[in-house]
Design goal:
366 residues; alpha/beta; Rossmann fold; four-stranded parallel β-sheet; 12 helices; binds 6-O-phosphono-beta-D-fructofuranose
Length: 366
Amino acid sequence: MAKKILIATGGGDCPGLNAVIRGIVKRAEQEGGWEVYGSIESFNGILKDVVEIEKLDSQKVAGIHVKGGTIIKTTNKGGPFYFPVKDDNGKWHFEDRSELMKKRLENMGFDAVINIGGDGSQRISLDLCKMGINVVGVPKTIDNDLACTDVTFGFQTAVQTATEAFDKLVTTASSHNRIFIMEVMGRDAGWISLYTALAGGADVCIIPEIPYDPKKLVDKINSRFINNSGFCNIVIAEGAKALDGEVTGSAPTAAGDQHIKLGGVGWKLKHELEQLGIDHDIRVMVLGHLQRGGIPVAYDRILATQFGVKAFELVKEGKFGYMVTYYHHDIHCVPLEKALEKPKLVVPETNYLVKAAKGIGIVFGD
Ligand code: F6P
């Protein structure tokens, strides 16, 4: 009888997810004796009252490495330990459906689960492993903030998108003698902001790891203008905060969503600069989910394909409780506990990109 793998993609989507799915399915088919299924909308598919899973074969996954998003859908709300259920009165309550999931996997003959997701999803992987479910994790995030892996797929695509947007803002800023503040994603880590600043040639780069003092930006900004002629381009991560401040965002509104919705720090910075007497026209552009969508760049397709193949190999070897990683130009794996110890943040004091950025005059507000 064929062995069975269930794949889930969880958390925010990310360019390259489909290439991982394709890698798993193709490698499993090549091996023979394996069947692969996708749980629709992360673990919701296996947790819902009516199970929603889809068999994946090489025909289904043909060519999907080129597509953004995830063919098996995703959600960043709830999960097996906190499953949202709507009552008749329209209110939501949350149920721990982890035991139900375990039973269903057993009854349906699943031998292993491959969970492709960020830190939240990998915490779920670990908790499922502790219940005796065979889980392998695959790291995913455009923010590139997962530990033990030098890079996550989707990050390079996000940087490319952000850099192209930044380049466009440079030309219009220059035509109008304006200051442009471009807000990019990056909840806890400033990797997208830092890479975009270097690639795009920003004057100012703000990241969550360096709480900024708006006063420290004024001289740099003014130096970009002579007799009101000039322009200045700033890139800021959504999770950035001023020295004495908090992150900017709004409370989660959807059921099961436990995260504050970041966004608006670019507008906050505009206000702070105006208060400090900067009188050039300041415009703000929030790039948002554009960075998560679209076709993955070649680098991400290649990395994601390797992750998919490695995830299958781990399942085949029975090496559960591990997360696939890319480290020093090779594909490895680490125990999930280790991957979740702490996030991979920019360490400003030692990071060579921060050093290079400062070396060409990019200001961070520190
Ligand atoms: O974790 C990746 C990320 O892109 C963050 O940078 C961002 O804060 C978050 O996802 C937004 O997620 P959503 O809008 O889908 O809830």
